[in-house]
């Protein structure tokens, strides 16, 4: 039984623009995990958002999954050396190479506070201008993670699970609001950039700012990938946020943040469904419902149906990422994969995965 059948959601297929394949495992195992996820959640299309900051070969893994599975789009990311070789020219060269490989968009984790601290460059730094300009020119969406929930900067409010992961941010990290200013700086320079701000830009506690962003730049979209804090914030001002969602229904996209975890003995529902169920229940159910992720009762939900739900869960994906996936240059991917490990210290598993990927695309 599929997730939508088990939980009595509407039976139409959905499009999920925020799934990650970065957990290191044999690449064919990743393919099977993603295949199972798509079948279980009735996903017609997904974007695999690569995280090369976690696994340097993740762009190749993502492209391999795209080539193996119908409906998989590739959102690829920049690699950084964290030295003087990271230049505007090098980032443009990467963008051009990823474009040739068939990327359908770009994923940026550079705005997450720990990554942003290591990078030591604001998101609107001139070094990224040629990259953003290329994405704007080609009409490729950039999915950008900026900041984290506001309470991660407050030792008295941060959730225990986030504290345990080291996500309490002190004065050595970029302040919460500064990340937003950096994004505003990017958009002032590249106002036609197709920018998808992940996790609702972490502004679910600031309706007026969310409205301002939407009104100021009509190429900006938000995704609904939890951060679960957003749904508690929505619930506190349910009527106001319901109106926002109706006004900007064509600029909000469904996402789950599912990873290619090993399932083990757990069921698909137990292993993968917590974020999907929170988001879908809030969108589709009326009145209170049990948030099984935190095991708490949510006071309110949107209870959308019809056109609003169609746009958020399906149609906006097609508009932003395209009806058809971009074609890949298989020979070029094989060449790049075969040579990628020459100046990098890779694990045996990464090396084996790269060889399999190079062989597959070079067949």
Fold and architecture overview:
There is one protein chain. With about 375 residues, the protein is of the alpha/beta class. It has 15 helices and eleven strands. A nine-stranded parallel beta sheet has the order 8-7-6-5-4-3-2-1-9, with helices on both faces. Strands 10-11 form a two-stranded antiparallel ribbon. The longest helix is centred in the last third of the chain and has 17 residues. The model has no long low-confidence stretch (mean pLDDT about 95).
Summarize the structure.
The protein is built from 15 helices and eleven strands. The chain has 363 residues and is an alpha/beta fold.
CATH topology of the largest domain: TIM Barrel
Largest sheet: 9 strands, parallel
User: How would you write the strand order of the largest sheet?
Assistant: 8-7-6-5-4-3-2-1-9
Helix proportion of residues, in percent?
A: 40-55%
**What would you give as the CATH superfamily of the largest domain?**
Metal-dependent hydrolases
- Count of DSSP-assigned helices: 15
- Strand content range: 5-15%
What is the molecular shape? globular
Structural class: alpha/beta
């Amino acid at each position: 039984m599929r997730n939508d059948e088990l939980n009595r959601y509407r039976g139409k297929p959905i499009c999920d623009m925020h799934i990650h394949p970065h957990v290191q495992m044999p690449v064919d195992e990743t393919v099977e995990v993603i295949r199972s996820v798509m079948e279980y959640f009735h996903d017609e299309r997904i974007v695999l958002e690569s995280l090369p900051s976690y696994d340097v070969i993740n762009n190749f893994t993502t492209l391999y999954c795209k080539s193996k599975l119908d409906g998989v789009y590739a959102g690829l990311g920049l690699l950084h050396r964290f030295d003087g070789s990271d230049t505007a020219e090098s980032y443009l060269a990467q963008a051009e190479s990823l474009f040739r490989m068939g990327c359908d968009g770009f994923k940026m984790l550079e705005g997450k506070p720990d990554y942003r601290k290591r990078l030591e460059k604001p998101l609107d730094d001139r070094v990224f201008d040629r990259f953003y300009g290329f994405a704007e020119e080609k009409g490729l969406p950039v999915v950008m993670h900026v900041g984290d929930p506001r309470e991660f900067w407050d030792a008295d409010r941060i959730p225990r699970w986030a504290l345990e992961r080291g996500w309490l941010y002190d004065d050595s990290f970029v302040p919460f609001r500064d990340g937003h200013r950096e994004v505003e700086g990017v958009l002032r320079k590249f106002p036609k950039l197709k920018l998808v701000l992940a996790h609702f830009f972490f502004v679910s506690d600031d309706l007026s700012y969310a409205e301002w962003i939407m009104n100021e730049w009509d190429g900006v979209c938000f995704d609904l990938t939890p951060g679960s804090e957003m749904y508690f914030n929505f619930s506190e001002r349910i009527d106001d946020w319901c109106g926002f969602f109706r006004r900007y229904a064509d600029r909000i996209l469904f996402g789950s943040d599912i990873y290619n975890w090993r399932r083990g003995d757990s069921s698909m529902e137990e292993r993968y469904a917590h974020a999907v169920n929170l988001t879908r229940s809030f969108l589709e159910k009326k009145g209170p419902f049990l948030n099984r992720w935190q095991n708490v009762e949510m006071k309110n939900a949107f209870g959308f149906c019809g056109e609003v739900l169609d746009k958020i869960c399906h149609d906006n994906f097609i508009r932003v990422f395209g009806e058809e996936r971009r074609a890949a240059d298989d020979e070029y991917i094989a060449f790049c994969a075969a040579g990628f490990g020459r100046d990098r210290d890779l694990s045996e598993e990464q090396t084996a995965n790269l060889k399999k990927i190079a062989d597959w695309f070079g067949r």
